[in-house]
Amino acid sequence: MKDFFDRVKPLLSKEDFEKLKNEYGKKSFLGVRVNTLKCSEEKFCEIMEREGIKVKKTPFSPVGYYIEDKSLLSGKHPLHHSGAVYFQEPSAMSAATLLAPEKGEKVLDLCAAPGGKSTQLAAYLQGEGLLWCNEYVRSRANILLSNIERCGIKNAVVSSCDPEVLCCALPGYFDKVLVDAPCSGEGMFRRDPAAYGEWSPQHSQACAVRQLKILQSAKKALKAGGTLVYSTCTFSKAENEDVVAEFLEENPDFELLEREENFGRTALDGRSTRIFPMDGGEGHFAAKLLRASGNDGGCVKELEPADMKKIPDFVRDFFEDTFYSAEMLRRAYLQGDKLYIIPKICPDTHGLGVLRAGVFAGTVKKNFFEPQHSLFMAEDTQNIRRKADLELHDPRLMKFLHGEEIDIDCSIKGYTALCVEGMTAGFGKASSGKLKNKYPKGLRIL
Fold this sequence. Notes:
Number of strands: 23
Radius of gyration: 23 Å
Strand content: 15-25%
Distance between the termini: 38 Å
């Protein structure tokens, strides 16, 4: 890796460069973030203490933690299946922390897969406003959608669209935009040594060209007075400070904001943020820009909910029987036989490669309604009438996550949420003391 270190050396003092090289003999950081849409930080810490799992706060997110032993807390853990946590490299949490949207705002995550930053942004919004998550590569967009559903996000649109097409269709629509741009990945070499084999100075320069192009698209979707965070997981100056400098030169209505974070270190431009392994995370860069003027936007048509007369009575009966409040039906949107609950704020999605707008509630059959896993994951547990709430070490919990039928209270009948420590992880249909498993096959523990 001599050529790589030679390129990084000018970014650091002699002392810090030696620290950096020493870090590459250590293990990479493991991190987890509490999804406050499903679980409070207090509940997470109480469970960790009870389970004897050692975690430690990271500086990159108010609800981010380092994990010492991933064998105790991994993708097979029930907390993951319930959407209570998201496993994320610690410093990768920094970009969303910089953007920090407020409840009710409209936010665009333009390069969103696999969904770590999107789910983090959603927690800031707390179900209000709109989160549009876009990923150009369709296969990665499907992974993004799965994570959005697992984390119980109801106010999101997930698309697979060219950034230029998307941003031109939604001019000046968003209050905040995140561009976590595809990059050469130099900051991840310690975590993924195989990535070094794909690296070259030429690849880094090609990335810089593409990154600037994405930024030029992103600006079109940002309203005047809005903020944009540009981030990468590379050390390359060409992909970081140089891209930002060229963008600012071509767009005088944008300004680079002063760094206010208490993590990482000041970048070469004196305002952006750089993170190195000796700062507590893998390599990251982030710059926060303000659109000071221009772009009043255009008239963006809103998506209209379905005419309630078109929704069959048996569908309304299902919602009223399953939930204490069926208020979400006011935002129902019928697409063929598929029923969606769209966000309160949602632009027309036609022609924008949308995989999902809001929550896929279920399928309207000839004379009955077939609910979906995503409906139960997104709904507030307190609004669900029937629940089977299991403790972490209840053997029935792992049986359920394997896709098996489990025993429950004989008094429970009908569609029922399966909860872990009070947090919904799936659902089934209860009858005669049995819960028929409806956990999606693709999510089951093998």
